[in-house]
Specification:
membrane, transmembrane, 9 helices, single chain, 227 residues, 79% helix, transmembrane helix
C-alpha cells in the first residue's frame, strides 16, 4: 500500500511543482502571494523525501527544492530567486517520473500512472493555492475542469484494461472496484462543488477532494496487479 502511494505521488508532485513554477514565473501575483507560495515548497520537498525511500534518485529533487527554498524569502517579496534551481528540480522530477512510468509492467499500467499523476497533481496544486490564498481565479476554474477530463481518461484506461479480467477475478474484487469508483466520484464532486454553487473554494473542501481521489487512484492502481 505504502509503495503504491509513493509511486503515485512521484508524477503527482512533479505536476504540482510544475504548476507552482508556472505561477511563480508567469503569474500576476503580489509579493505576499509569492512569499506564501515559497512557504509551501518544504511540504513538496518532504514528499519527495518520502519518495526517496523507494528510489534513492529522488534525493536530487529534494536537494534542488530545499536549495531554492533556502535562497528565497517567505514573507512579502518580489524576488524570484535562483529560478534555474527550480527548473532543475522540475527536470529531475520529470525524468524520475518518466522512468517510473515507463518501467511499469504493462502499457496500460503506465498510462494509468500518467493520468492519475496528472489528476492528483492538479488537485494537490489547487489545494496548495488555496492554502497560499491565491487570487488567481482562473486556476480555480481551470484545474477542476481539467480534473474532470483526467478522471474520465483514467477511468476509461482502467475499464479498457479490466475488460480482459477473468470472471472470477472480477467477482472477487468487485467491492474494491465499486468503492474506488465511489471515492473517485465523491472526490470530483467535492473538487467542483464551488463551481456548482458559484462560491469560493475552501481548504476543507479541496482537502476532502484530494484524499478521496488519492484513495480511489491507489485502490484502482493496486488492481492492475490482477490484470
Amino acid at each position: 500500500m505504502v509503495s503504491s502511494i509513493l509511486t503515485l505521488l512521484a508524477p503527482s508532485i512533479t505536476v504540482t511543482l510544475l504548476i507552482l513554477t508556472l505561477i511563480l514565473a508567469k503569474g500576476d501575483i503580489c509579493p505576499g502571494q509569492r512569499g506564501r507560495i515559497h512557504k509551501l515548497l518544504p511540504a513538496i520537498g518532504l514528499l519527495w523525501l518520502a519518495i526517496a525511500s523507494i528510489k534513492i534518485e529522488a534525493f536530487l529533487v529534494v536537494f534542488a527544492i530545499f536549495y531554492f527554498y533556502s535562497k528565497v524569502k517567505t514573507g512579502k517579496t518580489r524576488d524570484k530567486g535562483p529560478f534555474w534551481v527550480i527548473h532543475l528540480a522540475n527536470g529531475f522530477g520529470l525524468a524520475f517520473s518518466g522512468i517510473l512510468i515507463s518501467s511499469q509492467a504493462t502499457l496500460g499500467q503506465g498510462a494509468a500512472l500518467l493520468s492519475s499523476g496528472l489528476l492528483l497533481g492538479s488537485a494537490f496544486a489547487h489545494l496548495l493555492l488555496i492554502i497560499a490564498r491565491s487570487r488567481l481565479q482562473a486556476f480555480h476554474r481551470i484545474l477542476p475542469m481539467f480534473g474532470v477530463i483526467l478522471t474520465m481518461v483514467f477511468v476509461l484506461i482502467f475499464l479498457i484494461n479490466a475488460y480482459h479480467w477473468p470472471e472470477d477475478i472480477a467477482q472477487r474484487y468487485l467491492v474494491e472496484l465499486l468503492m474506488s469508483f465511489l471515492m473517485l466520484l465523491i472526490g470530483i464532486v467535492f473538487w467542483i462543488w464551488h463551481l456548482v454553487r458559484h462560491t469560493a473554494p475552501e481548504k476543507r473542501q479541496l482537502s476532502i477532494a484530494f484524499f478521496c481521489l488519492l484513495s480511489a487512484c491507489v485502490g484502482l492502481f493496486n488492481l492492475y496487479a490482477f490484470m
